[in-house]
Amino acid sequence: MPTEKQFKNELQNGKMIESTDEMTDGYKEALKQILLVSGDTELMSAPAYYDQSLNAPSLDARASCISVIQDELGHGHIAYRLLEDLGEDREELIYEREPHEFRNTYGFDQHIDNFAELVTAHGIFDRAGIVLLSDIHENTSYAPWKRALTKVSKEEQFHLRHGETWMRRLANNSEKTKQHLQEAIDWMFPMGVEWFGMPDDKKKHDDQLEYRIKGKSNDELRQDWLSRTLPLMDELDLDVPAHYSEDRDEYVLEYDLPVAFDAANKEWRFDEPISWSAVMDRWRSRGPANEKYVNMVQSGKVELEG
Amino acid sequence: MSSARANAAESVGGGQISEFVERRRADATPFERELWDMIDEIPDPHIPVSLVEMGMIYDVEAIDGRVTVEMTYPCMGCPAYDMIQNDINSCLSLTDGVDDVDVEVVWDPVWSKDMLSEPVREKMRKSGISL
């Protein structure tokens, strides 16, 4: 086995990993960590999307929404299956963890309360998922994950298109539906911004980058997401606290990230900046729908005999 | 038949269509063949092949600028039922010589996996879809 430093160098130079025999312990741990976040995020989007999918305004919309859920369960399955190759137990991961032990993104710990919020989740949360996964698809050193993501990427594109189509319809339908959409964006857009985590200048080192499990840094990914999300916001005439700055040649936020979030009322307190460790604490203590969603997934389990 | 094959080879589908589609495509006029080629550029929203490669397009008929596309779906509850018809509509209605597009959904013959050619199956397998 090479030294950790040599190993990281080889990975930066394009070395691909096929199996656990080729991994160092550090690599394996970093890979498990990101796969768990990915699998949990895919899995928990399913219960998050469920209630409002049954409230879709047409049979066709309902079929699309249900299909999104089915895809997400499949994507979760792929991540857990890969974790199994790394020595984890799928049954235990899904059925034997407590709600607070899930590592999904904080956005899927929130209640999705109406159809406008659901399609905004498809339109901007799934976009965040696409940004993160397409980086991994393109750049990862873990070959089995790269191969599995071909199917995932294609399906996520469908979710995004479904979300954007319905966001357009709601934005152009009536003042009332447009207002619902704006209210969804008001809490979901900053949630998307925060999703990408700590800015690069605050992050001392990043194993996932050094092992080339992913290719882009948090800020690069956040910029990527903003560059695809803001044109849609402009097109639909939705207000968001961010814009493109020609001087800096990048997208800039109009508040000091990170800020406090009032989870009970789904309100960001833009005048109340907090530290990233406070954000991590908020994520770790999980959001208001965490227990409900984990329970929706776990409660259907039946012990079959024989 | 040979000209339809040659035409298909130039498009995204790359001549990877099944015999069933090829038979349907064989008696197309040159203009209808152009329309077939355009539909062969429209991706299936879920699967990394075109609608023509999926064997979902059964016929394309153009009479005096009125285009009728006869198509089917692999399943009745297709999650992209409207989306696919919108794609065909917006793609063809922008074409010179097309005044009106009518998408007709039919269920006879019933779609089956047999309508997929071997190269299309291979594409699907590579992206992780089992057949």
Count of spatially separate domains of chain B? 1
Shape of chain B: globular
Mean pLDDT of chain B: 86
Helix content of chain A: 55-70%
* CATH architectural group of chain A: Up-down Bundle
Largest sheet of chain A: 2 strands, antiparallel
Describe, in plain words, how this protein is organized in 3D.
The complex is a heterodimer of chains A (306) and B (131). Chain A has one domain: Up-down Bundle (Ferritin). Chain A has eleven helices and four strands; from the N terminus they run αααααααααββββαα. Chain A has helices at 4-12, 25-53, 59-85, 90-95, 115-139, 143-173, 175-195, 207-210, 218-235, 276-284, 290-298, and strands at residues 242-245, 250-253, 259-262, 267-273. A two-stranded antiparallel ribbon of chain A has the order 1-2. The longest helix of chain A has 31 residues, at 143-173. Chain A is globular. The termini of chain A are far apart. The mean pLDDT of chain A is 96. Chain B has a single domain (2-111), classed as 2-Layer Sandwich (GMP Synthetase, Chain A, domain 3). Chain B has helices at residues 2-10, 19-26, 30-39, 81-93, 118-126; strands at 57-63, 66-71, 100-105. In chain B, 37% of the residues lie in helices and 15% in strands. Chain B has a three-stranded mixed sheet with strand order 1-2-3. In chain B, strand 2 (66-71), helix 4 (81-93) and strand 3 (100-105) form a beta-alpha-beta unit. Chain B has five helices and three strands; from the N terminus they run αααββαβα. Chain B is globular and about 40 Å long. The chains are: A mainly alpha (306), B alpha+beta (131). The A-B interface holds A 60, 63-64, 66-68, 147-148, 150-151, 154-155, 157-158, 161-162, 165 and B 45-48, 77-83, 126-129.
